[in-house]
């Protein structure tokens, strides 16, 4: 970490200089940006848990403390504007006082935090794990029993292990400010504090899966994704969400060329927000569902349904039927129709082939399926424009 020294509004005396435009549209002073955000723009990273740029300021984790000259005690960088702090003053982000404050904060956070790293799905991408390594200490002074918090059932998407919760309230602010559901809240005081639903109910929102990404620890993880893989086993591919009209940028994580999870791409400047819907996040699970139709069906003349052994047998049957119509009995289908049912998520290439197919044969009728469960082109849709990356990996 580097120290941030001798910053003034009109005179910048430091190696890092933020260029201001004359129209002040990118002027952080004018917009009263938090000090932690301004430090990030000039390459100085301040550790934090509760702060998120798309949520309101909470300032309860106290991990982002910095030292302000002539201040009796450290200040919270996420709750203080850069304009007020850097006006004829000095800020230190790596002084002995700041280091000691971070060590004390981490010691309090780890008092009741269980040692679940080997069995936690957040292992390898946990903020508490990383910051304990860089800013924490190896000794401990607490040898009593750790407290235990009852897990909550907040729905089929989010798995809760509330003993790991550090009360950053990101999920609470997300539910209140982004989804507007007010389903989550903080209860109790002191040692009895815990996060849960106000009544015994689920977190009902189409964006509920985003609290999995917001949680800095393993308190909120993906319920359909337990113990599947570690973060270092996955390869990521940038893609675009096909399920909405906003072309949201997403990250598709692969293991053995199989999609394991999907998250929003936070670093993309094209995204207006950092949220994706639950449909975007978990729709790929239908690809591997045992309820999918893996083999074709042939209806015989006596209305009996027979399952074909392979797709080749079914396709050969269709080819023979079309050949019979074209060359032997062109009037056979005048009173009959061949219905081709397709899903709404098929790729443009498949839709184009279906259109050519229906134009060539007048008896072919295209119908859109109301059930999105059986989708053979879902993986191809996610990897549009990235098939070379997938092949190379």
From TrEMBL:
* PROSITE patterns named in the record: 4FE4S_HC3 (PS51839), 4FE4S_MOW_BIS_MGD (PS51669), COMPLEX1_75K_1 (PS00641), COMPLEX1_75K_2 (PS00642), COMPLEX1_75K_3 (PS00643)
Q: Which SMART domains match?
A: NADH-G_4Fe-4S_3 (SM00929)
GO MF assignments: 4 iron, 4 sulfur cluster binding; metal ion binding; NADH dehydrogenase (ubiquinone) activity; oxidoreductase activity
Gene3D superfamilies in the cross-refs:
3.10.20.740, 3.30.70.20
User: Which Gene Ontology terms of cellular component type are present?
Assistant: membrane
Task: Please tell me whether the keyword NAD is annotated for this protein.
Answer: yes
UniProt cross-references to CDD domains, sorted A to Z? fer2
Q: Where are the transmembrane segments?
A: none
* One GO BP: ATP synthesis coupled electron transport
Cofactor(s) needed, names only, are:
[2Fe-2S] cluster; [4Fe-4S] cluster
InterPro entries named in the record:
2Fe-2S_ferredoxin-like_sf, 2Fe-2S_ferredoxin-type, Mopterin_OxRdtase_4Fe-4S_dom, NADH_UbQ_OxRdtase_75kDa_su_CS, NADH_UbQ_OxRdtase_ferredoxin, NADH_UbQ_OxRdtase_Gsu_4Fe4S-bd, Prok_molybdopt-oxidoreductase
User: Can you give the residue ranges of the 4Fe-4S Mo/W bis-MGD-type domain?
Assistant: 234-291
Print the keywords alphabetically.
Answer: 4Fe-4S, Iron, Iron-sulfur, Metal-binding, NAD, Translocase
4Fe-4S His(Cys)3-ligated-type domain: from which residue to which, for each copy?
97-136
SUPFAM superfamilies cross-referenced by the UniProt entry: 2Fe-2S ferredoxin-like (SSF54292), 4Fe-4S ferredoxins (SSF54862), Formate dehydrogenase/DMSO reductase, domains 1-3 (SSF53706)
Entry's family note: Belongs to the complex I 75 kDa subunit family.
Protein name per the record = 4Fe-4S His(Cys)3-ligated-type domain-containing protein
| Organism field | marine sediment metagenome
């Amino acid at each position: 970490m580097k120290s941030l020294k001798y910053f003034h509004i009109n005179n910048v005396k430091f190696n890092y200089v933020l260029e201001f435009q004359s129209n002040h549209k990118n002027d952080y002073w004018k917009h009263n940006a938090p000090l932690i955000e301004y430090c990030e723009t000039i390459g100085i990273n301040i550790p934090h848990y509760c702060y998120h740029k798309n949520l309101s300021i909470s300032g309860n984790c106290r991990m982002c403390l910095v030292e302000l000259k002539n201040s009796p005690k450290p200040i919270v960088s996420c709750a203080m504007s850069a304009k007020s702090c850097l006006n004829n003053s000095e800020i230190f982000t790596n002084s002995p006082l700041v280091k000691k404050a971070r060590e004390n904060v981490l010691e309090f956070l780890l008092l009741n935090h269980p040692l679940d790293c080997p069995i936690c799905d957040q292992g390898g991408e946990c903020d508490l794990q990383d910051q304990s390594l860089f800013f924490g200490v190896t000794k401990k002074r607490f040898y009593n029993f750790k407290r235990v918090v009852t897990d909550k059932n907040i729905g089929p998407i989010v798995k809760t292990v509330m003993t790991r919760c550090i009360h950053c309230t990101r999920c609470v602010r997300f539910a209140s400010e982004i989804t507007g559901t007010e389903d989550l809240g903080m209860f109790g005081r002191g040692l009895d504090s815990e996060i849960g639903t106000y009544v015994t109910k689920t977190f009902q929102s189409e964006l509920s899966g985003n609290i999995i990404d917001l949680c800095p620890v393993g308190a909120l993880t993906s319920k359909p994704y337990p113990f599947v893989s570690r973060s270092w086993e996955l390869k990521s591919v940038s893609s675009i969400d096909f399920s909405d009209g906003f072309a949201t940028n997403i990250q598709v994580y692969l293991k053995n060329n199989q999609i394991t999870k999907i998250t929003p791409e936070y670093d993309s400047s094209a995204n207006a927000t950092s949220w994706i819907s639950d449909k975007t996040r978990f729709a790929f699970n239908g690809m591997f569902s045992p309820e999918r139709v893996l083999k074709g069906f042939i209806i015989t003349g006596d209305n009996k349904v027979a399952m074909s052994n392979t797709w080749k047998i079914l396709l050969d049957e269709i080819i023979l039927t079309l050949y019979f119509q074209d060359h032997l009995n062109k009037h056979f289908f005048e009173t009959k129709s061949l219905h081709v049912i397709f899903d709404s998520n098929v790729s443009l290439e498949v839709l184009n082939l279906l259109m050519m197919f229906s134009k060539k044969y007048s008896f072919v009728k295209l119908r859109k399926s109301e059930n999105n469960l059986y989708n053979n082109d879902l993986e191809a849709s996610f990897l549009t424009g990235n098939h070379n990356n997938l092949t190379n990996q």
